[in-house]
Amino acid sequence: MSGAVPQGKIRLRFSEFVVDPSDADVMRRVLEAEADLLTFKGGSITFSLHGVEVCSFPTSVLSGVELPVRSEPASRVYSVDEVRKQHPKALRAVGAGG
What we know:
Strand order of the largest sheet: 2-1-6-7
Mean pLDDT: 77
Helix content: under 10%
Oligomer: single chain
Distance between the termini: 25 Å
Radius of gyration: 12 Å
């Protein structure tokens, strides 16, 4: 997975392999999730779409969150700490449906 993140998607970068939530037979270090809300609870980050939880991961295995940028062809990669500091409770993703 390379290039810009499509609008309405969030690209997650992991420090270790994790099970793909849509295919339990696949392990990934990069995963794209369709989500419009990121929520931090304890040591986890939860991704939701239209109020329904899409997936959840411990923040300790995430090395970055890549979000689409509306006005630019490339997306922007944020560290989990950066996202959490800017939006301590939740972040509504730019360009997500809704």
